[in-house]
């Protein structure tokens, strides 16, 4: 596993883990590395110091385990408390934002273009981990 510090064209910074540097290169070339803030696929690596352990003691919890636990908690919360609106997410989020639809928590599918348009118009939205997509989940089961 390798961790990269990344930045999108809009200067949002974030970190992501990949199986290898070749995995990052392949995913970036295919447009599969996406900014979690604005969904941009124009991503570049940033300078990052390597993590160096100063003792022989193993870390208490591996970063991957912590990430998986957090993603699972988010997934459970959203599936329990939010309404799934499928590919009508952008339209429904706008209707809620503009007061044309009842205010409630929703999740669903949106294209990067729809996400950028919503953000430009001040409609609150945030990308979710791929694991939260019911379509993706059903493909893996």
Q: What proportion of the residues form beta strands (DSSP E)?
A: 5-15%
Radius of gyration: 17 Å
N to C succession of SSEs: EEHEHEHEHH
From the helix content, strand content and strand pairing, which structural class follows? alpha+beta
The low-confidence parts are 132-141
- The end-to-end span amounts to 25 Å
Arithmetic mean pLDDT: 82
Q: What percent of the residues sit in helical stretches (DSSP H or I)?
A: 25-40%
Strand order of the largest sheet: 2-1-3
Quaternary status:
single chain
Q: How many helical stretches?
A: 5
Characterize the largest beta sheet: strand count, sense, and whether it forms a barrel. 3 strands, antiparallel
User: How many DSSP-defined strands?
Assistant: 5
The shape, in one word, is globular
Question: What is this structure's SSE topology?
Answer:
Blueprint: E1 2-8, E2 13-18, H1 21-29, E3 43-45, H2 63-81, E4 83-84, H3 89-97, E5 106-107, H4 112-120, H5 134-140
Summarize it.
38% of the residues lie in helices and 14% in strands. By secondary structure, it is an alpha+beta fold.
Structure description:
With 141 residues, this protein is of the alpha+beta class. It is built from 5 helices and 5 strands, in the order ββαβαβαβαα. Helix content is 38%, strand content 14%. It has a 3-stranded antiparallel β-sheet with strand order 2-1-3. A two-stranded parallel sheet has the order 4-5. β4, α3 and β5 (106-107) form a beta-alpha-beta unit. The protein is globular. Residues 132-141 have low confidence and may be disordered.
